[in-house]
Specification:
Order of helices and strands: HEHEEHEE
CATH topology of the largest domain: Alpha-Beta Plaits
Number of domains: 2
CATH class of the largest domain: Alpha Beta
InterPro entries: T2SSM_b (IPR034756)
Shape: rod-shaped
Keywords: Membrane, Transmembrane, Transmembrane helix
Radius of gyration: 41 Å
Protein name: General secretion pathway protein GspM
CATH architecture of the largest domain: 2-Layer Sandwich
Structural class: alpha+beta
């Protein structure tokens, strides 16, 4: 048999039911609303940081553009403009010949050399004296676009004349990076 519930037990059951309703209300209504406010606040903070970052990035565009233009202008001194690798090799052979001729040497021939993609590489054979070789190398390396003199081979014969600088066979190999020439 079920015994009757006392007033104290009824108050405890009512308090327990009230606590359960308050907990259910908190977990079903209040907690999701608070969590929504917190997630929106975090998202707002992230958006504010992204907005600030984007403003700073946009503000640096003119400076970055000036730097890019300066670097592009400086690259002209380091890169040869040619339509293709063959044109770059011909330009390089012509430059080697001009350097040898301006130094007073006898240019014999220019030939192609194997190069990496994006590079032109050429070889020049000439007959000249040691001072002429120094002048030719100075001419090659001190005028833009600067190129890389990779090898210099000297073959000295038995032609030594007293009082004169000996004339020797030279082979100069040089390379330079290429940039496609602008269409005109």
């Amino acid at each position: 048999m079920i015994r009757p519930v006392s007033a104290r037990e009824r108050r405890l059951i009512a308090l327990l039911i009230l606590t359960a309703l308050i907990a259910a209300g908190y977990f079903l209504i209040v907690a999701p609303v608070v969590a929504g406010f917190q997630s929106r606040a975090e998202r707002f903070d992230r958006l504010a940081l992204t907005y600030t970052h984007n403003l700073r990035t946009i503000a640096t565009i003119p400076r970055l553009r000036r730097e890019a233009e300066l670097r592009r202008a400086a690259s002209v001194s380091f890169v040869a403009a040619a339509g293709n690798a063959e044109a770059g090799r011909e330009w390089l052979k012509d430059r080697l010949q001009r350097a040898v001729d301006s130094a007073g040497g006898a240019f014999r021939e220019g030939s192609d050399a194997e190069a990496s993609p994006g590079w032109a590489r050429a070889r020049a054979s000439a007959r000249m004296t040691l001072p002429q070789l120094a002048a030719a190398l100075a001419h090659l390396q001190n005028q833009p676009p600067w190129l890389i003199v990779e090898t210099v081979s000297i073959t000295a014969g038995n032609v030594i004349v007293p009082g004169q600088a000996p004339s020797m066979d030279m082979e100069i190999e040089a390379s330079i990076p290429l940039r496609p020439a602008a269409a005109r």
